[in-house]
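Closing statement on the NAI sub-project.
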Amino acid sequence: MDSQFQITVFSNQPYDESFLRAAGPDLQWRFLPQPLTIDTVQLATGSCAVCVFVNDDLSAAILQQLQQLGVKYIALRCAGFNNVDLATAHRLGIRVARVPAYSPEAVAEHCVAMMLCLNRKLHKAYNRVRDDNFSLQGLLGFNLHGKTVGLIGTGRIGQATARILHGFGMQLLCFDPQPNPAALPPSARYVDLATLYRDSDVISLHCPLTPDSHHLVNQAALAQMKNGVMLINTSRGGLIDTKAVIDALKSKKIGLLGLDVYEQEADLFFKDLSEEMIADEVFQRLLTFPNVLITGHQAFFTQEALSQISQITVANLRALCSGDVCANELKA
Ligand code: NAI
């Protein structure tokens, strides 16, 4: 690959830069903190490739501008690609590659951390003890052992989550349009969505966001769930109809809610907004519930995952920019 090929990295954070530089020290990087939007797309001028993340906008109008600027390749440094208009990219001759698998355990472990934290109310206990308040009132949890968890999506992350929860002694109910029973532990069985909703004490989402799965968890789905169900979403915000979920929190249908992703997260996550007013009233309402735990899309954020993401992204860029076959290229 010609080392003169310039790669503009959008939505760069200091950790991205250090891991990407370590993986591709010979590449000509341009690191920009700005997300890729219609207002920032011109910053890709002079680059043959852009490297983007989950909330960068790769809709048709932006892809057209990228092509006019001479950008030929897009390297996603993430697994999900719901933010890319792939049909338009292919029509424009822009090749797109992603990082399909990088430490699924990173996301699975964060998902289980959210379950444990919510159940045992660690977020409250942490503050109480620092305030010399050792009362246990309000911290009562339940044993995960013997409970039933419903996993929606049993790909790499769903399987890693299943392995951990099997170890906890939970019963596993799974739903996936492409079942893979051989990859799951013995306590798992595939059921239809209605059965999963009806019988699960904990429900965790591990499927991609597609037109079919958009607002999968809506009012009708919530109505089928157990009263007081724990719902965890470490997948994509658009899988959940947030307003329906707020109603379900108010009616106590949802007892515990853990979100690492949020439908409108592009305006919030990965930034320090601590000095600003947050205008998103739906998000603000979510924060008022004591039984809601939100993290800012950090499930992937381990050293192992960042190292793998960077190495695969650099390998993808080398293949794309050399005109070689790229195993991680997204086809139409
Ligand atoms: P994967 O491609 O290995 O597995 C996805 C599974 O979901 C497949 O088995 C597929 O058949 C299934 N599926 C598709 N549509 C479905 C539906 N409507 N209902 C149930 N299952 C369905 O993907 P992987 O690596 O397990 O990742 C899953 C999702 O996790 C990604 O699409 C991404 O959105 C999210 N993710 C979140 C991260 C975070 O930091 N919070 C990091 C990485 C991924």
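The CA atoms of residues 13 and 33 lie 6 Å apart. With this model delivered, the sub-project is considered complete and its resources will be redirected to Aim 3.
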